[in-house]
Amino acid sequence: MELTERYFADNDVRRFYYKLEEEGDRRFIYDPKKFAGSPEERWLDQLLYTFDVIGWVVRTKSLTPAEAEMFAFQAKQVLENEEVKKYLAWLNEAYASKGRPVPAHKDARYLVESFQKRRSKKTNQTDSTKSGGELGS
Fold first, then answer.
1. Cα–Cα dist 89/82, whole Å
2. What residue segments make up the domains of the chain, in order of their start?
3. Under a CB-based contact definition with an 8 Å cutoff, are residues 67 and 124 in contact?
4. Contact criterion met (CB below 8 Å) for 35 and 41
5. How many CA atoms lie within 13 A of 48 on its CB side?
6. Which residue of 3, 22, 77, 86 has the fewest CB atoms within a 10 Å radius of its CB?
7. What is the spatial distance between Cα 81 and Cα 28, in angstroms, rounded to a whole number?
8. How far, in Å, CA of 57 to CA of 108, rounded?
9. What is the pLDDT of residues 4-58, one digit of tens each?
């Protein structure tokens, strides 16, 4: 899949993804005064737009949530990062002020939601299997 190749081919984007998981001095900090036009903006936008495309492909049922699970997990890590949330909040305001639909990166969010629903469903099935097994003993 061309999308997978593109996702893994950009080493700077991959390094930035791991920076989002860092703590302390090496972690990503969203500073609106320094962020615009920075390499970090390009890398984060590339991650978000890639997750948008994957989310859209899942939404149109060309890819199942199971097939997109690896990407969905990574999208969840990105979208749940507190600094990324600040950027997304800023984007939502910018989109709304220009009459664009909000929330920003709707399909990336859909990808994460489909992942969470799938995980929740698996957990519920596991729980009911365990409780069913206990009752049947």
1. 11
2. 2-111
3. no
4. yes
5. 20
6. 22
7. 9
8. 10
9. 677 778 899 999 999 998 888 889 999 999 999 999 999 999 999 999 999 999 9
